């Protein structure tokens, strides 16, 4: 089975169930119990299977990337760090703009071809863009989970024969 060399994830409504620039109020802090809260002390939640998915993919040897067009760049980096996800991501492309620009930078930094990349995102407009350059994007409806990852890996294998 052909596998991607890099798996990338959008953040908002893909790894966590909110827009970081709208639904939470940075800066974030980590409580003694390990939970993360925003500036209003509202607990920040992520999709339940995301931490395990990231850990497993990293252990299986995939390179991982966080790719987001949010304007809340600093807050996104802070939240990734407080959640302990920094150790999983080889690449961070978090800034406003086209996902094509994000992936061109990953391509330049990694030396990988677009055809070796798999991306999970909830916005169809990004699929239209990435289809043009050959990055396979899997639509996310209700957050990343193990079943969706397995579907993405199957779709990648069948499309890259």
TrEMBL record:
Q: Which InterPro entries match?
A: HAD-like_sf, HAD_sf, HAD_SF_ppase_IIIC, MDP-1_euk, MDP_1_eu_arc
Q: Which Pfam families match?
A: Acid_PPase
Any GO MF annotation of the entry: acid phosphatase activity
What EC class is this? hydrolase
Key words of the record: Hydrolase, Magnesium, Metal-binding, Protein phosphatase
Q: Is the keyword tRNA processing in the record?
A: no
Briefly state the protein's biological role: Magnesium-dependent phosphatase which may act as a tyrosine phosphatase.
Q: Which organism is it from?
A: Petrolisthes manimaculis
Q: What is its EC number?
A: 3.1.3.48
Cofactors that this protein relies on: Mg(2+)
Its UniProt entry gives the catalysed reaction(s) as:
O-phospho-L-tyrosyl-[protein] + H2O = L-tyrosyl-[protein] + phosphate
Positions the record marks as coiled coil are none
**Which CDD domains did the record assign?**
HAD_MDP-1_like
Q: What is this protein called?
A: Magnesium-dependent phosphatase 1
């Amino acid at each position: 089975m052909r596998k991607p060399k890099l798996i990338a994830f959008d953040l908002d409504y893909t790894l966590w169930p909110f827009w970081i620039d709208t639904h939470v109020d940075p800066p974030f802090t980590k409580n003694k119990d390990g939970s993360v809260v925003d500036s209003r002390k509202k607990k920040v939640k992520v999709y339940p299977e995301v931490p395990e998915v990231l850990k497993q993919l990293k252990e299986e040897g995939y390179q991982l990337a966080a790719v987001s067009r949010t304007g809340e760049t600093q807050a996104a980096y802070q939240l990734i760090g407080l959640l302990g996800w920094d150790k999983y991501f080889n690449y961070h492309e978090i800034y406003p703009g086209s996902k094509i620009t994000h992936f061109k930078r990953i391509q330049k930094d990694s030396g990988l071809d677009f055809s070796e990349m798999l991306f999970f995102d909830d916005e169809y407009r990004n699929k239209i863009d990435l289809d043009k350059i050959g990055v396979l994007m899997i639509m996310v409806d209700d957050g990343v989970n193990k079943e969706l990852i397995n579907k993405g890996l199957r779709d990648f294998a069948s499309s890259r024969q």
